[in-house]
Amino acid sequence: MPMIEALRLMAWLSPTYPIGAYAYSHGLEWAVETGSVSDEATLTDWLGDVLECGSARNDLILAAHAHCAAAASDGPALVAINDLALALAPSRELHLETSQQGRSFLDATRVAWPVPALASLSEMLDGEVAYPVAVGVSAGAHGMALVPMLSGFGLAFVQNLVSAALRVAPIGQSVGTRVIAALAPRVTALAETVPALGLDEIGSATLKLDLGSARHETQYSRIFRS
Fold first, then answer.
1. Closest Cα to residue 145, out of 67, 206, 199, 81?
2. Cβ pair 60, 158 in contact under 8 A
3. Could you tell me which of 106, 170, 116 has the C-alpha nearest to residue 141?
4. In the prediction, which pLDDT does 69 show?
5. What is the structure's pLDDT at 122?
6. 208, 45 in Cβ contact below 8 A?
7. Residues 146-171: pLDDT tens digits?
8. What's the pLDDT score for residue 125?
9. What is the rounded distance in angstroms from the CA atom of residue 118 to the CA atom of residue 138?
10. Nearest-angstrom CA–CA distance, 151 and 60
11. Would you state the torsion angle of the CA atoms of residues 182, 162, 54, 28, taken in this order, to the nearest 10 degrees?
12. CA distances from 180 to 58, 75, 174 (A)
């Protein structure tokens, strides 16, 4: 990936990008509340499962297909991918998480990094937009290399949840850094397999997270929106 593209991707996936990622824990706050995540080992296991067996893997597949649809200027395919991505959200809160961040990401990117391809494709996504679709279509419209984009997106997913864990779990910054370091090679390995995967290979085995995200809606004390 050329340096200018790498810097652009880093900016898009930065915690300072105006999508409100800090407000969501993707069910992690509920996991901490119930004791499923309580230290470095349990956090690493939890995030590893989400990465390889849950929504992170699905998001990478969806982002890859959105990237390919953008590269081919295939608007109808992009709309179908987005509809699927939104329908896959297993709870109201996770639907809000992906749709709010996706809409915000696409709107911000269109303004700050305008290109004709993204402007044209964005017109077909005039309602709710799933976050991985927004990232994928933006990267595809900008001609970014697929696997590096997926790797960066996957690592940003992990980093955001580690950031959430630092606020709700009994772990410190050193532990959080070690967790990210431990999962980074697994992110890269996963990203390299995703381009060969079809939409029919989307699936999740993280039922505890899915059910927990629904229970989080009525959790007595919480600081996150999911």
1. 67
2. no
3. 116
4. 98
5. 92
6. no
7. 999 999 999 999 999 999 999 998 88
8. 95
9. 6
10. 9
11. 140
12. 20, 36, 10
pLDDT of residue 213: 85
pLDDT at 166: 94
* pTM, 2 dp: 0.97
What is the Cα–Cα distance from 139 to 157, expressed in whole angstroms?
16
Provide the residue type at 35 as one letter.
G
Q: 92-112 vs 207-215: helix axis angle to the nearest 10?
A: 90
d(CA 82, CA 95): 12
Question: What local confidence, expressed as pLDDT, does residue 212 receive?
Answer: 80
Which CA distances in Å does 202 have to 57, 58, 145? 8, 5, 22
What residue type is 193 in one-letter code?
A: T
Residues 6+ apart with CB under 8 A from 133: 62, 63, 66, 78, 81, 82, 85, 102, 125
pLDDT in tens, 108-131: 999 999 999 999 999 999 999 999
Rounded to the nearest angstrom, the gap between the alpha carbon of residue 162 and the centroid of all alpha carbons in its chain is 13
Residues of the chain predicted below pLDDT 50: none
Q: How far apart are CA 196 and CA 80, in angstroms?
A: 19
Contact 28, 165 (CB under 8 A): yes
Query: Which of 70, 148, 146 shows the shortest CA–CA distance to 109?
Result: 70
Residue 94 one-letter amino acid: L
Residues 6+ apart with CB under 8 A from 178: 40
